[in-house]
């Protein structure tokens, strides 16, 4: 993605549209699923899943997704210890994209859910 003024305006438009659809009654999953959709609209990605870290339970939980059924992740145990990409994202405090090395970055039981 280029970083020109036109791109910045497009990004702002997508996120403004996203936030305008959020109301006080929306569930967190709905918000994060819309966020995943916005990421796909702004990139060449066709689907995305967003995970959040629950520090109390020390687990990584699915927060929302676009073009991936989040129910596939319910009831699965996923920690920063079992997924190097989750640990790295928290340590670096940034979003990480995993596509080609997915088998190295996430537990095997999740690979089939993401591919």
Summarize the structure in words.
It is a single chain. The protein is α+β, with helices and mostly antiparallel strands and 115 residues long. The protein is 44% helix and 13% strand. The chain has a two-stranded antiparallel sheet with strand order 1-2. The mean pLDDT is 78.
List keywords for this structure.
single chain; 115 residues; alpha+beta; two-stranded antiparallel ribbon; 44% helix; 13% strand
Shape label: globular
Please give the count of helices.
5
- Give the terminus-to-terminus CA distance: 23 Å
Please tally the β strands and state the result.
Answer: 2
Taking pLDDT < 50 over at least 5 consecutive residues as the criterion, the unreliable ranges are none
Overall pLDDT level: 78
* Largest sheet data: 2 strands, antiparallel
**How do the helices and strands follow one another from N- to C-terminus?**
HHEEHHH
Work out the helicity level: 40-55%
The helix/strand class is alpha+beta
Q: Quote the beta fraction.
A: 5-15%
Indicate the radius of gyration in whole angstroms: 15 Å
**Adjacency order of strands in the biggest sheet:** 1-2
Brief synopsis:
The chain has helices spanning 5-20, 28-42, 84-92, 102-105, 108-114; strands spanning 48-54, 59-66.
Which helices and strands appear, and what pairs or packs with what?
Layout: H1 5-20, H2 28-42, E1 48-54, E2 59-66, H3 84-92, H4 102-105, H5 108-114
Helix pairs in contact: 1-2
